[in-house]
Amino acid sequence: MDESIRERELAESIQAAAPRGDTGADGLAVEEAPATVAFADTAAMATREGTRRKTIAAVLPPASPKLIVGLVLTFGIVLFGLIGPFFVQDPKFSGNPAMMPPGPDHLLGTTQLGYDVLAQLAYGARGSLMVGIIAGVIAVVLSLAFGIIAGYVGGWTDEVLSLVTNIMLVIPGLPLIIVIASYVPSRTLLLVALVLGLTGWAGSAVVLRSQAKSLRSRDYVAAARVAGEKTWRIILVEILPNLLPLLSAQFLFAVILGILGEAGLSYLGLGPVGSITWGTMLNEAQLGTALSSGAWWWFVPPGALIALLGCGLSLINFSIDEYINPRLRLAPAAQRSMRKARKAGRQVTSKHTVDADGVILDDEKKKVVV
């Protein structure tokens, strides 16, 4: 059905359903008693509050072992980056003995120049997390601007924004980052994060554009247009809340890419100058021949923290993906049901499908009893 026809039908239905006041014997409108109005207002406020709480609870993914492990890993490393620097020495203090293995004086040993590895690890956590978060925020904001606006507004706006998105998609990201970073001698953490954010939003914008195009045809969005709401308000109030789980997953993915991108640039010697990150620690360990000299304590801790943080964020991302996509969430239960069906001697072929409630259906869309 054409959107204009549906909007006209919605306008007629809204006009027909408009509340009409009661009339008295003289034909004049009769106002409700003040006490009745106050009670109705209080009940309406309580209902809205309850609905708001239910909405917030519905947005959050359910607790699962995967989500809990991801949250523990992520928040543990973030806490280490926030609090750790207050309990360690200056990461650039070179008065310690060089190349000391882990021991009571230096829990993670020292580097070739006498730097304490634990101190560099704590300060490096701050730098890597800052780069990842800033790059993630930039990528999400750009994907919102190019994806949702293009998908909702349509027309020539969609054409122009999609053209820019497609151009950014075909440009290889890592070589572009290397070229940009190599032409800037005084690279800061903010500049590296900016470059990573500007080159990492196009894929998310494509997904958001398709979702926005789907949501703009919903009845409640059409009703908002009929009611005369402005475009920016429809996007912010009607469309954006429905995309919050997807945006959360895209933000986490952008943070992971930002941290890994910074580590890769720093390992190649194109990272931030004068700052400490996990990537710069790996670069110094590589330049100091830590691998050949057996100084595993120099490069294993930053590499392990990068891997653990990426694992934690990925587990949270997978949990959100399963929450967004019911097929992913219900796939294990469906597989168990199919195994039980096979053990019971029932024929379950690949032609069977699983509906949104996890029920196995046959070719005629009838429930398969397990």
Q: Which helices and strands occur, and which strands form pairs?
A:
Blueprint: H1 3-16, H2 34-59, H3 65-83, H4 117-153, H5 155-170, H6 173-182, H7 189-198, H8 202-215, H9 219-226, H10 231-239, H11 244-267, H12 278-287, H13 290-293, H14 296-324, H15 326-343, E1 353-354, E2 360-361
Antiparallel strand pairs: 1-2
Helix pairs in contact: 1-9, 3-4, 3-14, 4-5, 4-7, 4-8, 4-11, 4-12, 4-14, 5-8, 7-11, 9-10, 11-12, 11-14, 12-14, 14-15
What is the general shape? globular
Distance between the termini: 40 Å
Number of helices: 15
Largest beta-sheet details: 2 strands, antiparallel
Q: How much helical structure, as a percent, in the residues?
A: 55-70%
Main β-sheet, spatial strand arrangement:
1-2
Number of strands: 2
Q: Radius of gyration over alpha carbons?
A: 28 Å
Secondary-structure element pattern, one letter each:
HHHHHHHHHHHHHHHEE
Q: What is the structural class?
A: mainly alpha
Uncertain parts: 19-35
Strand content: under 5%
Write down the overall mean pLDDT: 79
Give a written overview of the molecule.
It is a single chain. By secondary structure, the protein is mainly α. It contains 15 helices and two strands. Strands 1-2 form a two-stranded antiparallel sheet. Strand 1 and strand 2 form a beta hairpin. 67% of the residues lie in helices and 1% in strands.
Offer a quick outline of the entry:
This protein is mainly α and 370 residues long.
